[in-house]
Amino acid sequence: MMDEGVDVKSLFLFFFSPQVLLLACAEDLECVPGFQQKVFYIEKPFQFTEDRLILNLKFDDCKGNNKLNFEVSNPDFTVELDGNLVARKNVSEVGKALFVHARSEHAEDMAEIFILEANERHGALKEIIKLEGNLGIPRQKRAILATPILIPENQRPPFPRLVGKVIRSEGTEGVKFRLSGKGVDQDPKGIFRINEMNGDVSVTRTLDREAIANYELEVEVVDMNGKTMDGPVRLDISVIDQNDNRPMFKEGPYVGHVMEGSATGTTVMRMAAFDADDASTDNALLRYNILRQTPTKPSPNMFYIDPEKGDIVTVVSPALLDRETMESPKYELVIEAKDMGGMDVGLTGTATATILIDDKNDHAPEFTKKEFQATVKEGVTGVIVNLTVGDRDDPATGAWRAVYSIINGNPGQSFEIHTNPQTNEGMLSVVKPLDYEISAFHTLLIKVENEDPLIPDIAYGPSSTATVQITVEDVNEGPVFHPNPMAVTKQENIPVGSVVLTVNATDPDTLQHQTIRYSVYKDPAGWLEINPTNGTIGTTAVLDRESPFVHNNVYTALFLAIDSGNPPATGTGTLHITLEDVNDNVPSLYPTLAKVCDDAKDLRVVVLGASDKDLHPNTDPFKFELSKQSGPEKLWRINRLNNTHAQVILLQNLKKANYNIPISVTDSGKPPLTNTTELRLQVCTCKKSKMDCSAADALHISLTLILLSLLSLFCL
C-alpha cells in the first residue's frame, strides 16, 4: 500500500526522473561490467529538443572505460561521453523505444529506453512500484519534520546565525541529527550546519541569492553508531532577495532606424535592461525614461519611450522628420532603466540608443546643365564625356545612386552610358567606331533616374533629361579589302608565275582622293608576290599541298593596302588558297625489316602496309609486286590482303642469313606512281623462345644489288 496523501503524478515523475536509478545501493555491490541500469521509462514529450538532456546512462566496465563509445538505434539521438542522452535536432516522432549499445576495451552492454504516451504511464507506474518491492527498498513513515527555511541575502555578521529547526516526532534521546547536501558536505561546503542534539539549523556566512537562490539539503536521524533511524527527508532553504543589483543593458550597441517622414507614433526600437534580482519582486521591476537627446533640433523631444515596455516611438510630425533639413540624421538618446518600479529608491542603469533617420527617395536627380558637349575621333572607342547630376538624397542609398539611359539619337547602338559608382556621374562611351564620312555630328537625349523608385508624390521633371552634342573628327583611315577574307581554289604544282587573284581595296576617306599601293605582309612559304599598283597576286614558287605551311588543304597569306595620306594608313587583307591535290607523291612501304626463324612452321613473314601523302583517288587501292627473283627456285611470294596491305610469304625454310627482297608498290593516280623498296629479311636461329639473328651463315644479296654492281664495273 502507498502512504496516504502521496501524489501519484509526483511519484511517477520521481521514478521517471533521469537522475533516479531504479537499482538500489549499487555502490555497495561488487562492480559488474555494463550499464548500471539497463531499462528506463520516460514520458514522451511534445518533442525532444535539440541538445537538451533526456537522461543519463551510467556505464562502467570496472577498468576505467577506456575507448568507450555509444551507439543509438535512432540516428536522431546521441550519447555523449559522460552518458548524457540528447537529441541531435528537434524530434517529434521516435517510436516506442530506443536502444543504446555501449562498447569499451573490456566490456559491452545494451540499455533500453521505453517511451510512454501519457495514457500508458499509470500501468508503468504499477510495474515500477512492484519492482521497488522486489528490490527491497525500505519504506518508512515520516518521523522527521523539516519545514522550509527562508534566509535574507546580504546578512551582516555575527555568524553563525540560527535560521531554523528540524523536529523528530519520536524524540531525540539516544540519536543525533545529520545534515548533508550542496552547502553542507558538498561545494560550496560549510554554509549550513545542524546541531546534532536538538536539530537547530544555522547559516555560517553571508548568502548571495544571485549566486544560489535555493538549497536542497537532506536531514536524517542516526543512532550513536551512525545507523540511520529516520529519513533522509528533504530540507529546502530559500534565499530572500534584496535589491542589490542595478539594471544592466547587456545587448548593446543599441541602434534603431526610422524612415524620414514617418507618422507620429512610429515604433523605432525596443530597449531591454536586465536586473539580476528576483523577477517576482519590485527589486527587478523596471521603468524606462529618456534622460537626454542629442542633437536637440528641430525639437528637443523627438522621441518617447514606453516606461514599461521600453519601446521608443516618434512624437513629432512627419514634416519634422525630414532628413534633408536636419542638422544631423543621427540622434543619440541616453536611456535610464530604474528598478523598484521607478521609485526614487530604485537603482538605475543607463545606455545610449542611436537612432538613424533613413532616407527615402523624395528628391529626383537633376542634371547640372541642360546640354553637354563632346568631341571624338572617328574609329575610336571609349568614354567621351562625363555627365554630372545632383541629388539631395542619402549618397549611401539607392535613392541617390543614378541610372542613366539614352532615350533618343542612338539608332545604331554606337553609344552606351554607365554610372560611375564613386562619383555618380554618367560615363558616355562610344562602343562602335564612328565614321566621319557617314555622319560628322550626333545628338543624344539622356535621361537619369534613381535605383530606387521615387515616392508616390514625387516625379521626374525636365531637369532629369539632358542633351549631348557629339562632334566626330576626321582621321586618315586605312584602306579596306573587299571581300575580307578573300578565298580562291587552285591546283598544287601550277606553273611559277601563275595568277592567283587580283585583290580590291578601297579608301574610306572618299573626300581625300588618295591612291593605294599593295605589298605582301605575311607569306609563310614564300610562294606569292603582288603587283603594288593593280593588286594582282602571282606565284613565285610551286604550290605544294603537302607542305607543313598548308593546314587542312588551305594556305593563308596576308597583304597590305597602303594609302597616300600623311601619315599613310594601312589596311590588312587575308587570302585563303584552297589547294587541290595532284598525284605528285609516290607511295611508301612499311615496315622495311622483318625477322623469321630458320625452322618456322608459319612462313607468313610480315604484313606490309602502304601510305601516300596525296589525297584520294591518288592513293589506294595500292598494287604490290615482287621484283624478279634470282636463282633457279622462287623463295617467296606476296599476297594482297586489302587496298592498303599485303603479306610476304616464304615458300620454304631458309638458312640463317640476311635477305633483301625488292618490292614495288603502285598508287591509283592518273598517271600512277610506283616506288620500289627493299624489305630486309633476317632468317634467325630460334631456340627455347630466343631468337639469334647475329653472324649470318651467308649474305644473300638481291638481284637488284647484283645488277647495280655489274653496271658499276662496266662504267669503270
TrEMBL record:
Residues 1-26 form the signal peptide. PROSITE patterns: CADHERIN_1 (PS00232), CADHERIN_2 (PS50268). The lineage of its organism: Eukaryota, Metazoa, Chordata, Craniata, Vertebrata. By contrast to classical cadherins, homodimerization in trans is not mediated by cadherin EC1 domain strand-swapping, but instead through a homophilic adhesive interface which joins two elongated EC1-EC2 domains through a region near their Ca2+-binding sites to form a tetrahedral, X-like shape. Its main location: membrane. InterPro entries: Cadherin, Cadherin-like_dom, Cadherin-like_sf, Cadherin_CS, Cadherin_pro_dom. It is a lipid-anchor; GPI-anchor. Cadherins are calcium-dependent cell adhesion proteins. They preferentially interact with themselves in a homophilic manner in connecting cells; cadherins may thus contribute to the sorting of heterogeneous cell types. May act as a negative regulator of neural cell growth. Residues 175-249, 250-367, 368-481, 482-589, 588-699 form the Cadherin domain. It is found in: Cell membrane; Cytoplasm. GO terms for biological process: adherens junction organization; calcium-dependent cell-cell adhesion via plasma membrane cell adhesion molecules; cell morphogenesis; cell-cell adhesion mediated by cadherin; cell-cell junction assembly; endothelial cell migration; homophilic cell adhesion via plasma membrane adhesion molecules; keratinocyte proliferation. Keywords: Calcium, Cell adhesion, Cell membrane, Cleavage on pair of basic residues, Cytoplasm, Glycoprotein, GPI-anchor, Lipoprotein, Membrane, Metal-binding, Repeat, Signal. It comes from the Eukaryota. One of its GO terms (cellular component) is extracellular space. This is Cadherin-13. GO terms for molecular function: adiponectin binding; beta-catenin binding; cadherin binding; calcium ion binding; identical protein binding; low-density lipoprotein particle binding.
